[in-house]
């Protein structure tokens, strides 16, 4: 998952993925 790549393992992986939508993941890939 893009989130796992952009954010190190910590508070984000589970909570962030649950709150984030597919569009947000695509936007993160564009920003990268």
Task: Summarize the helices and strands and which ones pair or pack.
Layout: H1 2-6, H2 12-19, H3 22-31
How does this structure look, described?
- With 32 residues, this protein is mainly α.
- It has one domain (2-31).
- The protein has 3 helices and no strands.
- The protein has helices spanning 2-6, 12-19, 22-31.
User: Ends: how far apart?
Assistant: 13 Å
Number of helices: 3
How many structural domains? 1
Overall SS class = mainly alpha
Gyration radius, to the nearest Å? Answer: 9 Å
Q: How would you sum up the global shape?
A: flat
Mean pLDDT: 56
Q: What is the H/E order?
A: HHH
Helix content: over 70%
What is the count of β-strands?
A: 0
Largest sheet: none
Keywords:
32 residues, mainly alpha, single chain
Concise summary:
By secondary structure, this protein is mostly helical. It has helices at 2-6, 12-19, 22-31. The chain has one domain (2-31).
